[in-house]
Design a protein that fits this description.
This protein has 346 residues and is an alpha/beta fold. The protein has nine helices and ten strands.
């Protein structure tokens, strides 16, 4: 799964990853979608890749970036719900009598894209990563590494690591145990050292100054290469995701994250009971707020109209009263005249 603010290159990254690894692609159109468009809903792409002659079926969940709204609180809830829903669906299937052919869409890893500001993490990043880290193997990724200088990258990585530690956010880290060979241990150490990984995404092949054709981004000063370890950690990330640690990601999802979901649900509800919806979809919330605002405005307008109408009525009543008074006065005057005339006649 890919997550993070809008426009950080999540969709581009997945297309880059596919074009450097996939032998066949379920939907070739997805791979060559140019220019990339803003992702507007959670989308699942099925892919198949061949690794050392093993066929691996992969589901990629691309998600719309959040952070576009004025109020971004809870804009990431659909992501968290999606992850929970997959655990939930698996849990329900496990409780059925027939447990063959389970449909399993549990998320094994979530790449969280961080804006390459060079400063640190935003409160929104911290909030979202906290939520994700307790549910899924979280791998933070610094987006668009080509926009930062090597020195800046080093500092930025350090800052992010400090913040993650201070906020107690447990990101995914491969482990070394007694079964790990020395060579593997060295590889794992170099992976951990590079975290959070920097990435460059590009769907285009460009030519370098020394005449090589590479995946990269062309600038006036030269080319930022996707698969060059001096430019970014794309190769390390790819190694971890689909070569060295794919199985470990699957296993830790089962052992740690799914297990923790299952345990939590078992505490809170009876066997077979459906889950209560914890969160409301934030976009519904926004719609509801807008509707309420429109309704209040309309009521205000109507009130205003009534008040005007009432005032007109009062003015009309006053006018009629005055008319009545003057008519009374005329009648009174005439009565007096009649009285005087009749007196005089006697
Ligand atoms: N400089 C630079 N630009 C990039 C990189 N990756 C993607 N872009 C550009 O950034 C823009 C947004 O890329 P997308 O892949 O659509 O970003 P996204 O994260 O999927 O965006 P949403 O779908 O809105 O969440 C595009 O114009 C890409 O060409 C990168 O590594 N470096
Ligand atoms: Mg996108």
């Amino acid at each position: 799964m890919l997550a993070g603010e809008s426009g950080l290159g999540k969709t581009t990254f997945i297309n880059t990853l596919f074009s450097t690894t996939l032998k066949t692609h379920a939907d070739p159109k997805v791979r060559h979608q140019t220019p990339v468009q803003k992702t507007v809903e959670i989308g699942i792409t099925k892919a198949e890749l061949e690794e050392k002659s093993f066929k691996v079926h992969l589901n990629v969940i691309d998600t719309p970036g959040f952070g576009d709204n004025v109020n971004n609180r809870n804009s990431w809830l659909p992501l968290v719900e999606f992850i929970d829903d997959q655990h939930e669906s698996y849990l329900r299937q496990e409780q059925q009598p027939n447990r063959q052919n389970l449909h399993d869409l549990r998320i094994h890893v979530c790449l969280y894209f961080v804006r390459p500001t060079g400063h640190g993490l935003k409160p929104l990043d911290v909030e979202v990563m906290k939520q994700l880290a307790t549910r899924v193997n979280l791998v933070p990724v610094i987006a668009k590494a080509d926009t930062l200088e090597p020195g800046e990258i080093k500092l930025f990585k350090q800052r992010i690591r400090q913040i993650l530690e201070a906020q107690n956010i447990q990101i995914y880290k491969p482990e070394i145990d007694d079964k790990t060979t020395e060579e593997e241990a060295d590889q794992i150490k170099s992976l951990i050292q590079a975290m959070p990984f920097t990435v460059i995404g590009s769907e285009n092949d460009v030519e370098t100054a020394d005449g090589r054709i590479v995946k990269g981004r062309q600038y006036l000063w030269g080319v930022s290469e996707v698969e060059n370890d001096d430019h970014c950690d794309f190769r390390k990330l790819r190694l971890l995701l689909i070569r060295s640690h794919m199985l470990d990601l699957i296993k830790s999802t089962e052992d740690v994250h799914y297990e923790s979901y299952r345990a939590k649900q078992m505490q809170n509800r009876k066997f077979g009971e459906p889950k209560t919806k914890k969160f409301d979809n934030p976009s519904f919330k926004e719609d509801e707020d807008n509707l309420r605002k429109r309704f209040t405005e309309q009521v205000k307008e109507e009130e205003q109209r009534f008040r005007q109408w009432e005032q007109n009525l009062i003015a009309e009543r006053d006018r009629l009263n005055k008319d009545l008074e003057s008519t009374h006065a005329v009648i009174r005057k005439l009565e007096i005249e009649v009285e005087q005339l009749s007196l005089r006649r006697r």
